[in-house]
UniProtKB/TrEMBL annotation:
Domain Glucose-6-phosphate dehydrogenase C-terminal: residue ranges: 190-485
Gene label: zwf
Binding residues for substrate: H179, K183, E217, D236, K341, K346
Pathway: Carbohydrate degradation; pentose phosphate pathway; D-ribulose 5-phosphate from D-glucose 6-phosphate (oxidative stage): step 1/3
Signal peptide: none
Organism: Lacticaseibacillus brantae DSM 23927
Entry's Gene Ontology molecular function annotations: glucose-6-phosphate dehydrogenase activity; NADP binding
HAMAP family per the UniProt record, alphabetical: G6PD
Alphabetical list of Pfam families matching this protein: G6PD_C, G6PD_N
Protein known as: Glucose-6-phosphate 1-dehydrogenase
Annotated Glucose-6-phosphate dehydrogenase NAD-binding domain residues: 9-187
GO cellular component: cytosol
Record keywords, A-Z: Carbohydrate metabolism, Glucose metabolism, NADP, Oxidoreductase
Length: 496
């Protein structure tokens, strides 16, 4: 294993993301040997912490990980340094530069820098601007910017943000995180599609009837109301995670698995999104908000009763929609998507329903054969299920539907790298495959802005009872064309 070298400057080093995700991910890279001696992390935030105190924070964030030994944790934490920093104060960048240069020499790093923005998005442009004006970029080694979602809240703000970071960093230096792209089963979609002769030639409108993507959450808004009120399900889940899943499910096969080629086919896919007029968007995308219900003997709050939510909030907690692609491969094939909070149970899954065989010679009454269905379980369980038709046992040739089911076992899943670990290693390696590029965001924001506009033009906010899979309108989206959601859980499990 080759050790990666970098000074990582983490803006927002005292934050929730840093503690819950980034320190554990960096620690795993350290345990696996991707990071060894030649790295240093500078955590910045407003509070006046000492290096020692910061190292205690980092230690606390990783100490309970299964692989952690006291010796390793101590060695890991010794690479962390703290710099009290106000992002708007130019003088602080000068201090930061001096510290980064000192650590670069001390750890013999050779000028590699990663700037990780784990802060509120309104600061991203300011920080990028100062990185340039105060000359933090190194002439030798690499300079890479890692930027968290949300990337804007509509097309105009995303473009403004992109322009501001692009003034300092080139596109090939920008790593926009969508942590879904770091998930094992999301990357696994590509393996499944392009690694199987029984699937690859069938992956088109000729053989596939529809694709369904569900990102169901069982939890409510929890303590994130402040953020969620100004976001809603469309911005929080559809514009990013669902669009990325959709792209991996539908893009053309790249000639090679290099970042440039993958992004080329992905960009082409996003350009082929069938754009709705606002009227069409209102028909094809529905929203709703959860209302109080008795679930498993317990009264669950409605969204408008949650702490921090306005009594007349118009923020949607559910979206379902039908998306179309204008490509020869997918012309007319509906891609249904659905996401929401307080649904029946937590699950992210994809169902690909194939067209039934044209002439079911086994049926006496002309009944069509059941369609083949492929389900990809992204989380919480990870695996695949293929439904195929077999012969019913006995003196008959009636078909019966059988399932070929595979799930990764818990022990293997626990050993596999977590999304942030995978993505941070990609940043260190300089592999942009699993990050989003501006061309995709440009298209996806324009696409969702029309939906938002259509919704904003009405005062209606449909509702659904907590613990259900959304409003009737989301069922009607499919039943109107004789289809149905494949994932219809009945057993309610509201705790994740
Ligand atoms: P947080 O509020 O917990 O942390 C924000 C950090 O920024 C803190 O370290 C704070 O000290 C620092 N900060 C704030 N204002 C500052 C200023 N003026 N100068 C210097 N430092 C300042 O936020 P978070 O939950 O860690 O989220 C960080 C980013 O990651 C956000 O963009 C968020 O949307 C994104 N994100 C977070 C999560 C998560 O699980 N927490 C998941 C996905 C994306």
């Amino acid at each position: 294993m080759t050790e990666k070298k970098a000074v990582i400057i983490l803006f927002g080093g005292s934050g929730d993301l840093a503690k819950r995700k980034l320190y554990p991910a960096l620690f795993q890279l350290f345990v696996r040997g991707d990071l060894q001696e030649h790295f240093a992390v500078i955590g910045t935030a407003r509070r006046p912490w000492s290096d020692e105190y910061y190292q205690e924070i980092v230690t606390a964030a990783v100490t309970n990980l299964p692989q952690a030994t006291t010796k390793q944790v101590k060695a890991f934490a010794s690479h962390f340094y703290y710099q009290s920093h106000d992002v708007t104060d130019s003088a602080h960048y000068v201090t930061l530069k001096t510290l980064a240069e000192k650590l670069d020499k001390q750890y013999d790093i050779g000028g590699n820098r990663i700037y990780y923005m784990a802060m509120a998005p309104e600061f991203f442009g300011v920080i990028a601007g100062h990185i340039k004006s105060e000359n933090l970029l190194t002439p030798d080694g690499f300079n890479r910017l890692v930027i968290e979602k949300p990337f804007g809240h509509d097309h105009a703000s995303a473009k403004e943000l992109n322009d501001s970071i692009s003034a300092t960093f080139d596109e090939n230096q920008i790593y926009r995180i969508d942590h879904y792209l770091g998930k094992e089963m999301v990357q696994g979609i590509l393996a499944l599609r392009f690694g199987n002769q029984i699937l690859e030639p069938l992956w088109s409108k000729d053989y596939i009837d529809n694709i369904q993507i569900t990102l169901a959450e069982a939890v409510g808004v929890e303590e994130r109301a402040g953020y969620y009120e100004s976001s809603g399900a469309l911005r929080d889940m559809v514009q990013n995670h669902i669009m990325q899943l959709m792209a991996y499910l539908t893009m053309e096969k790249p000639d090679t698995f290099s970042p440039e080629v993958v992004h080329k086919v992905k960009d082409a896919l996003f350009s082929s999104l069938h754009r709705y007029t606002p009227e069409e968007a209102a028909q094809n995308f529905i929203r709703a908000q959860y209302v109080s219900a008795d679930v498993n003997g317990q009264t669950v709050n409605g969204y408008r009763q949650e702490d921090g939510v306005a009594e007349d909030s118009m923020t949607e907690t559910f979206v379902a929609g039908k998306l179309l692609l204008d490509t020869p491969r997918w012309e007319g094939t509906p891609i249904y998507l659905r996401t929401g909070k307080r649904l029946t149970r937590k699950s992210t899954q994809v169902t690909v329903t194939f067209k039934p065989v044209a002439n079911n010679i086994f049926a006496t009454d002309g009944e069509p054969a059941a369609p083949n269905r492929l389900t990809i379980y992204v989380e919480p369980t990870q695996g695949y299920r293929l439904e195929i038709n077999g012969k019913t046992l006995g003196q008959t040739f009636a078909l019966s539907q059988e399932s070929l089911d595979f799930r990764h076992d818990d022990a293997s899943v626990a050993k596999a790298p977590e999304a942030y670990e995978r993505l941070l290693l990609d940043v260190l390696r300089g592999d942009q495959t699993n990050f989003t590029r501006w061309a995709e965001l440009d298209q996806s924001w324009q696409y969702v802005d029309v939906i938002r506009q259509a919704w904003d033009a009405t005062k209606a906010m449909p509702t659904y009872a907590a613990g259900t899979m959304g409003p009737q309108a989301s069922m009607d989206l499919l039943t109107d064309s004789g289809r149905d959601w494949a994932f219809k859980p009945t057993h309610i499990k509201l705790a994740d």
